[in-house]
Amino acid sequence: MRLSKSLIPTLKETPAEAQIVSHRLMLRAGMVRQMASGIYAWLPTGIKVLNKIAQIVREEQWAAGAQEVLMPTIQSADLWRESGRYDAYGKEMLRITDRHERELLYGPTNEEMITSIFRDSVKSYRDLPQNAFQIQWKFRDEVRPRFGVLRGREFYMKDGYGFDLDRDGAVITYKQMMLAYMRTFQRLGITAIPMRADTGQIGGDLSHEFHILAPTGESGVFYDADFEAGDAFAHDDVEKFYEQMTTIYAATDEKHDLATWETIPEARRREGRGIEVGQIFYFGTKYSKSMNFSVIGPDGGKIFPEMGSYGIGVSRLVGAIIEAKHDEAGIIWPDAIAPFKAAILNLRQGDSVTDGLCEELYKALGQDALYDDREERAGAKFAEADLMGHPWQMIVGPRGAANRMVELKRRATGERFELPVDEALAKVRG
Q: Is the pTM above the cut of 0.85?
């Protein structure tokens, strides 16, 4: 993408409405623009990050055996009355009446709809277990939307749903999803810690939240330093993984147990702040029974499938990752989700040799590069590249270009390398 022809409306000043780092930087870096309270338009660099996160989430769900579906954003109120949640959910639900006076709602979650789909499609115990997910926009009418995409009203979410014949099978699915989540966060380049959680409106008696560590997090977190090792989910033994994840101490301030905390050696105790980016639930037959979804068992009797649901806030992750990875100059994107692998900074626009080498680099990297081809001073180009957080900056001036040399800057560390063109390209490509 050529910056001179791009919709990347960067800002030099911080917007007054932005209260936290991620909101300020997303607006300043031209990733989003607010269209209404808690509702954002995603601009080209923002949507690139959003799609890269979604694709990693999608690939890890596929690897765990989940099937992708796409359900409507608008749901019938009658489905929610079947489960008993329509009146119980509260004002966060956006209720709608169509021209035929039918009551509808903009879905905040999809337990009822997926149960209805399986009720219509799955009849025998032989068809279970099954696991389905989607990545879709949702809406919750927050009374005070704030903090940009961290607490908006419209948000992009992966929600998944497991159906098993018995509790033991449903708990295995739950453990597999926890492993898939930890692998997802590892691929995103972040540290996330699972913590025992309340089930809230979803229901059930088993739930974990996943928190990214960030100084500006909304929750206080306490955890054993053993979580920082990062090797607990490098294997395929789900039972061993789950035991390790649930026996190493981790808790939000709401569930912090001081007596247990004091049994952990002081050198391993860690305290900080966390941003919730995902939650998983096991809730048994709460929805299958209330919505009369059963399958025929091996003896001809009725079995109400045991269920769980599994959510990751994809749009929320964009803000949370920025909260965890930034400095005074701007965003520091992990390589896997950066909108571009590199910014090509032409320091002498109009010089034929410099222009020629920049065009060569741009052609070689294609969509992985943002080419700053503007008639702009070098300092402004450096500042915008730091603000937008590209993992690499490829700096091309007339002296280096004459010798086919490129200066590389690594955004995360500030390290600089002067390399021949081929070596510079190889380093950027990884």
A: yes
Give, for all 430 residues of the chain, the pLDDT tens digit.
Answer: 999 999 999 998 888 888 899 999 999 999 999 999 999 999 999 999 999 999 999 999 999 999 999 999 999 999 999 999 999 898 999 999 999 999 999 999 999 999 999 999 999 999 999 999 999 999 999 988 888 999 899 999 999 999 999 999 999 999 999 999 999 999 999 989 999 877 565 555 789 999 998 888 888 999 998 887 766 566 678 998 998 888 889 998 888 999 999 999 999 999 999 999 999 999 999 999 999 999 999 999 999 999 999 999 999 999 999 999 999 999 999 999 999 999 999 999 999 999 999 999 999 999 999 999 999 999 999 999 999 999 999 999 999 999 999 999 999 999 999 999 999 999 999 8
In SS3 terms, the chain reads as CEHHHCCCCCCCCCCCCCCCHHHHHHHHCCCEEEEECCEEEECHHHHHHHHHHHHHHHHHHHHCCCEECCCCCEEEHHHHHHHCCCCCCCCCCEEEECCCCCEEEECCCCHHHHHHHHHHHCCEHHHCCEEEEEEEEEECCCCCCECHHHECCEEEEEEEEEEECCHHHHHHHHHHHHHHHHHHHHHCCCCEEEEECCCHHHCCCEEEEEEEECCCCCEEEEEEHHHHHCCCCCCCCHHHHHHHHHHCCEEECCCCCHHHHCCCCHHHEEEEEEEEEEEEEEEECHHHHHCCCCEECCCCCEECCEEEEEEEEHHHHHHHHHHHCEECCEECCCHHHCCCCEEEEECCCCCHHHHHHHHHHHHHHHHHEEEECCCCCHHHHHHHHHHHCCCEEEEECHHHHHCCEEEEEECCCCCEEEEEHHHHHHHHHC
